[in-house]
Amino acid sequence: MNDSRTLRRSLPGLLLAACLALTGCDQDAPVPPPQAAPATTETRPAATGGDAPRLESLASLDEQPLARRKLDIQTWQTAEGAKVLFVEAHELPMFDLRLTFAAGSSQDAGTPGLALLTNAMLNEGVAGKDVTAIAQGFEGLGADFSNGSYRDMAVASLRSLSAADKRTAALELFSEVVGRPTFPEDSLQRIKNQLLAGFEFQKQNPGKLASLELFEQLYGAHPYAHSSEGTAESVPGISVQQLREFHARAYAAGNLVIALVGDLDRAQAEAVAAQVSAALPQGPALPATPAPEAPPAGKHHIEYPSNQTHLLLAQLGIPRGHPDYAALYLGNQILGGGGFGTRLMEEVREKRGLTYGIYSGFSPMRAAGPFMISMQTRAELTDGSLQLVQQLVRDYLAEGPTEAELERSKREIAGSFPLSTASNANIVGQLGSIGFYDLPLTYLEDFMGEIQTLTVEQVKAAMNKHLQSDGFVIVTAGPSVEQQPLPPPTERPVEQPSAVPEH
Amino acid sequence: MHLTLRRAAALLLGALYLPLVAATDSQPTHEFFLDNGLKVIVREDHRAPVVVSQLWYKVGSSYETPGQTGLSHALEHMMFKGSRKLGPGEASRILRELGAEENAFTSDDYTAYYQVLARDRLAVAFELEADRLASLKLPVEEFTREIEVIKEERRLRTDDKPNALAFERFKTVTYPASGYRNPTIGWMADLERMQADELRAWYEQWYAPNNATLVVVGDVTQDEVRSLAERYFGPIAKRPLPSAKAPLELDEPGERRLQLHVNTQLPSLLMAFNVPSLSTKADAHQIHALRLIAALLDGGYSARLPERLERGEELVTSASAWYNAYARGDSLFMLSAVPNVQKGRSLADVESRLWAELDLLKQHAPSREELERVRAQVIAGLVYERDSITQQATTIGQLETVGLSWRLMDDELAALEAVTPEDIQQAARTYFTPTRLSVAHVLPEESADE
Fold first, then answer.
1. Burial letters for A326-359: b for 16+ Cβ neighbours within 10 Å, e otherwise?
2. CB atoms A165 and B141 under 8 Å
């Protein structure tokens, strides 16, 4: 909720006016780019045969394993029971602190919006300071406070310079904000109004409407069913007393993971974690989220006067830490993960021009998160597109990936590993996930290693174990118009592959 | 609270340049030209064994003429459709297989392509990028299908997004004289009649090494980059370029008012003043004063618009101010807001209240505390920016491509320090006038008026 548009962002902020190739020309598009470019059809195995690569740079790549930034993850518990994960990084005079509480909307307990409102109200008041004084405090130190609330988790973060004077003052204020918020009544009314305005804005966003409906249909009575923002019916009645009670339970030190990266030594890091932890309510972790039940397959339509129809297809996937995750991740990368070069992107966008983008993915959560496919197309091609996507999934589950697809995706995942820990921001995100989902400290290496051992049969078996081609909950949002047949696909002449060398 | 603020201010005054010196010392940046005119900028960042490579072309939608809007963006899409060594989409497939992130973006002043990848693989990014600069294929059958994708993009990003649609219309009014009025994605009518040979001509006009800047940031040295750049980009011949005229606007076009009805539930307000940019105004103080004004109004949760309008008076549910100083031509100072309809506030209320804020800037100098907060954020921001190699490269590429120097990013603090409270008042008086103003009232479809 803390929207810190600062002067320092004004240079990169120019990109507000930019038009990303595949991500569009939105003035207000903060969506992370799926990738930019389209990819070719993959009818031949890639790196085989005697064809000399046409790219000399590819031919000269050696087979050494890639270097990456070393992560020495240190971990301990605070006296109050918060788990800490810390990586020293002295290159820049700054640090990132991220608190992740198991305090997302799955803990709303019948009051949708409670978790989000509690999180949004943290920086609205502490003893002796109102919301503006708090904002002035952080901004006067050059510190960034941010917060956010999702289904599993609520997050509060601090980025600050590491010089002792800045660090001490920023941490003092941050600890007060997270640990002892006063939840002023007038702020609550204002933030409720802003949420209600947000609900009005949602009505002009068919993609959002489709997504809300999808989660309702997919999760039924499970706490993941409702949106973290709550509803126009539930939000007005939430009281300060409810926020206080929620904070006392859910923002307890025992319900927290602290991720810390930056220009601190171990002793300083321990002091930081101890200070934050001591400021919090004391208490244990909240009970785990129950497992959801699989919903009936079915199709649901939202009538909406747009040019395009939004299509979402989903079924239940897996929880975090599931032993099949590596196989499913690899399987999905081939089907529709990450942008160009996937089966879905190739068939739906590249060969037929039906959409700007189509993506699929598993979102593992504390309980089983969704597997979802999303796309948009002009309204008159909705039915044809839906049938095409379903057929592509059916074929993939029946046949599994090819050896060549599997090898390419393995190389891709290995190659992208150095990027995943390149910045402090990347690392603090990884630490937060590892800690929150209780994964081993060697998780990143383990995952990379496991990916490389997987076979076609294992990937196919895992995909079929978790997905049923006729098991989708489908939601469409768009206008009802007369349907047209799909244009025929283009079959490109088969290009000789450029032969990325084997590792 | 005041204690904390004063203490912060005192500390800042005492040690203003310290973090900066520490920050810039370890960030060597080099620039050089190849013989064919390609400018190369290398910024070393050895924290992780990764590198970002960006190639920026000086062409974008502000270069386009009526009837041909969207050419630069469509060409960007077609750059992924094959060149001499590569089939359609093949470069993306190769990069994906290497685990690289890649993308491209088009704006009014530039078109840029980038790859982020393990440092050992930089040569591949260069070879692919050089190949499509030198020998794009532009197959007609690929274009026929890709233009459908671009239309889907337009429907998704603009036609089905009421606020984006309103902003597109508004821009045509704010820029009466220059190509900045063109939507980067192009008007639908122009997409419908776009031809592959127009793209061919656009490519041949603008895609030359002497019209591009290669920016590399990451775990590399100047020598490595120079040798790779010479090997892959060096052989591409320099070409004569059309003259590119800066998009100049009328200083005071006169007040323009627009009422737009779109498929929205909530009304919103857009205000824009025609103002110069750093490229079109000789006196940089005035430009940096406008940047400071944007920060005073909206540079954080404690800034004036959120503090006074959003929280204090609860007049708006959101309000923002922004100013792009780094354009090739004249620019806009923009304000936007959504009235708090739960409190019965109207667009007219909000418009007059925003004017009151602007008038305040003309009459009273900002407080020292306010300015110190802005400075503190700038100082910290210079450090934080360096956590992302992509952000560093983007800042460099953007500055260079609009005709400014990348060195501005390292001079940021000095530039803002040089602005006096009088400069701020002077800028407000000069630029916040009805003769420079465009206003749009964006309203729900049913409502005839607010």
1. bbbbbbbbbbbbbbbbbbbbbbbbbbbbbbbbbb
2. no
